[in-house]
Design goal:
Strand content: 35-45%
Number of strands: 6
Oligomer: single chain
CATH class: Alpha Beta
Distance between the termini: 44 Å
Strand order of the largest sheet: 2-1-6-5-4-3
Shape: globular
Number of helices: 4
Number of domains: 1
Order of helices and strands: HHEEHEEEEH
Structural class: alpha+beta
CATH architecture: Roll
Radius of gyration: 15 Å
Length: 142
Amino acid sequence: MTAQQGTTAANIALIRDTLDAFNRGDVDTCIARMGPHFVMNLAGLPPMHGAEIWRQGFDVIKRGFPDLRAQIDDIVADGDQVAVRLTFRGTHQGEYLGIPATGRIVEYVSHEFYRIVDGLVAEEWICSDTATMQGQITSGDV
């Protein structure tokens, strides 16, 4: 195995392990895997800096969907870049973006890209189908 292949495998393992921590609700482990100058890019928004902004987003989504889980559908890597196609599933059990709990189950897709530096996530790009998720909690369709 070449050094490049070893790095790619380690980067995939980092993202898999971090998503496992997300599924357990272990925000501290997720944060510990972020680099000191972490940047989060959400589709349609300007870049946001720092792990604390990520923690705030985690808290918002987990308050609304405490059982939310990410299932890895595809994961590929090349060098310091990792791409993941995820399916998120959870139950709307708390207020989310002003919408009171409905008890409805949601399922939506997210495409996420990560840049790894020195074994930590330096930057992420998230393109989640939040329109589908919000439609499910306002109309009940899955």
